[in-house]
Amino acid sequence: MSSIKSASATQEGSRASATSALLLLLHMRTFVALILVFGFFALAAPNFLSAANMLIISKHVALNALLAIGMTFVIIAGGIDLSVGSIVGLCAMVAGYLVLYGIDLGIGWSVQFNTLEICLIVLLAGVFIGFVNGMLITKLNVAPFIATLGTLYVARGAALLFSDGRTFPNLAGNPEYGSDTFKLIGSGTLFGFPLSIWIMAVVALLAAYLATRTPLGRHIYAVGGNERGAALSGVNVDRTKLFVYMFSGLCAALVGLIISSQLQASHPATGETFELNAIAAAVLGGTSMSGGRGRIGGTIIGAFVIGILADGMIMMGISSFWQTVIKGLVIIAAVVVDQIQQRLQARVILQQHSN
Predict the structure, then answer these.
(1) Half-sphere exposure of residue 58, counting CA atoms within 13 Å on the CB side?
(2) Residue 327 falls within a domain, yes or no?
(3) Is residue 121 over pLDDT 90?
(4) Which residues span the domain enclosing 212?
(5) How many domains does the chain have?
(6) CA distance 329 to 276
(7) pLDDT 10s digits, 146-184
(8) Reported pTM
(9) Residue 18 domain flag
(10) Which of 5, 18, 60, 303 is the most buried (most CB within 10 A)?
(11) For this UniProt entry, which residues form the secretion signal (predicted)?
(12) Confidence (pLDDT) at 25
């Protein structure tokens, strides 16, 4: 009888060890995916490991990571922001318009701005659109998917109206007004690295500190985990939701500034489908679509996976249509793996309680 019990205990111990190992693998899935994707393209894509290509990838990753950081906060709080790509396009057009024309007062005079003032106006525009999203969701009780989908169309239409669908070219700026340094935002370097990477690093560090070291960060997780419970415990749910959408708008405005500066041109179609990359990076990095769980560090790694995947497929000559399909499959796979991880964790907790 004792031998049977011993064998049963051994089997349960083996299952527990296997489950723990699987949970550890699932927890590190983003890092594993990064190694696999990087290794595959290093072998399969010509010149993938060249310094020039690594620099290009890092610039693309910085843009996607900035959007994904804002998206991470939104998803952790139990929402979604489909408007970030359109906010990028609109803010890029606002930046281009201010660099070229300033603001016409309609009396034969115009107000011109220097680079810092242009940046502040564009960032405020992104925050304002995020504020509108937040107000629609918190005060009018519009579902986040519907509210941000509507904003997606409004912002994209406004970007097209800015120039009747045309591009604002030659954003070199004017030394007389102090706007000639605008191009440095996207093309400037610091210690050999592009400024866009430094901007992404600073935003990521601030976001990680906010998420892990401040009451607001705890409130964001609480709202996404159990909104009613958070409200009963004294958390201002509406204010917390308003913040995450405003922060997401700020990140999107930063991306719009960087892209228009890099290209020295603004096009109303800038940022199309960027929201898909941001969602994919956040979910791949471990952010749960059901809310209440996610890490900024995981999102950054997820952004690297998406960036390397996108650039690697381009270098291999894979059709853009197939690239879209593969990105969609990555999002589905990330959500499925996240669900598997949650079920395994729940099973482990249940077993621990039963023992």
Answers:
(1) 19
(2) yes
(3) yes
(4) 61-354
(5) 1
(6) 12
(7) 999 999 999 999 999 988 888 998 888 888 888 889 989
(8) 0.89
(9) no
(10) 303
(11) none
(12) 66
Residue from 264, 279, 288 nearest 345 by CA: 288
- Any domain includes 22: no
Would residue 45 count as lying in a domain? no
- At 198, list the tokens: 């430094």
Q: What is the model's pLDDT at position 4? A: 52
